[in-house]
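Dear Dr. H.,

I hope your travels went smoothly. While you were away I took the liberty of generating a structure for the chain from your last submission, since the lab meeting agenda had it listed for discussion. I wanted you to have the full record in hand beforehand rather than looking at slides cold. The sequence, exactly as received, is reproduced here:
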Amino acid sequence: MMHGHHGMEMKMISDPDPSKGILLTPGERADIVFTPNERRLELEWHDIARGRHTSSYDDAGNVVLGHLHNDGHLPPETMLRLKTKGHKHAESEYIPPANLSDIEPIDATNAPRLPVMFGHTNPDADGNIRFFAQMKNGMPLPFDQITPDDAPSANVGDYRVIEVNNMTGGIHNFHLHGFVFQLIETQYIDMDNPENNRTGPAPYLENKDTIQLPPRPGARGRSRSVTRLALHVDDTGREGQIAAHGREPGEETSGGWLFHCHLLEHSAKGMASYLQVFDPAQED
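The corresponding predicted structure, in token form, is as follows:
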């Protein structure tokens, strides 16, 4: 797996802990180099605690959610089996290049904030749950209710700090179409337990379009995690082609750039919105 370190150089993560493996959120990508030490190898999926819920009826007949106590304890599953061929050892050990690529840091210092609010409602009378990625006047705003007046906007060339608030007790992820972003920091906010309040800077420089969002550290409505991402609305190499606004495609626009949870059942249930990008040069 790759990561950036010391300025703009792209380096290798060396010797990942085999007992922990490599953690990728749905939609995330990584380049992995390994040296087989056996003739037969298996790639396994291992479960982690993700904040799964249980559902049940209370005494009044309402559907209520609870926490699954054995969350993260599903047995491993084999995803891939490899069998090596040949009997000769390599004449020399393969050593990856020290510098894989250069990454230009996105300087979003003092850039306007773009809030994203990931959450879900309690079950309604029929047990249905609505997911959302925005709020309006303190109320959830699922995707099917978002108008162009509600969706965030930026101009070509602008810088933004996307603040993705995860108000749930489960892991989600954030995926943005059309652009890359860089993690700045992750903050944990708990109004009831100050010992949970902390902020961790990005461990390394990396261009991403999908990132995992940690769960809130405390009670619902009283805590959240905030993942801050630096964004440059950059049209380098595609000049005049990134303007996109409106809810749906039309004759002159493709509709805004979608962002959503890449747990696709959550996105389909409303945990999505869109970034509208305007190009003043095209409007003159």
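Two observations you may find useful: The chain has two helices and 19 strands. The longest strand covers residues 181-190.

With kind regards,
E. W.
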